[in-house]
Amino acid sequence: MPDTLRKIAEADRVQAEILAVSERLEFMQMTPQSCAALRSLKALVRRELPIALDKFYQQVRKTPDTRKFFSTEKDIDRAKTAQEGHWGNISDGISAATHHP
User: Which of 75, 81, 90, 91 is geometrically suited to a Cys-Cys bond with 70, CB 3.0 to 4.6 A?
Assistant: First the structure.
């Protein structure tokens, strides 16, 4: 694919993602003010989330009713990584959707 077409395809993909996030924000009744509030917490969430998840999964390990959902430590690591990614995507999506028309 020529470089120009690749750039156009990437721009289209980004616009589609922004539209999808914007639609989700509208569904959740997120206002520009609430998005700004979440954006202002992004650095805090990124810094503190790993600590909070470590504590959460310590409790998961101690509790038979929750431990049974994870066969191995790798499963717990994957879940933790997925949650970190999820919250990163939320804050990144909110930033992208509220900074692009």
Answer: 75
What tens digit of pLDDT does each residue of 2-54 get? 788 888 888 888 888 878 877 887 888 888 888 888 888 888 888 999 999 99
Q: Is the pTM of this model over 0.85?
A: no
Tens digit of pLDDT for each residue in 74-88? 999 999 999 988 888
98, two tokens: 């509220």
Look up residue 100 and give its two tokens.
């692009």
Could you give the CA distance from residue 86 to residue 30 in angstroms, rounded to a whole number?
Answer: 18
Q: How far is CA 62 from CA 66, 69, 85, 100, in A?
A: 8, 12, 24, 45
Interatomic CA distance for residues 35 and 33, integer angstroms: 5
Q: Computed from CA positions of residues 69, 71, 75, 77, in that sequence, does the dihedral angle turn out positive or negative?
A: positive
Spatial CA neighbour of 87 closest among 54, 55, 43, 29: 43
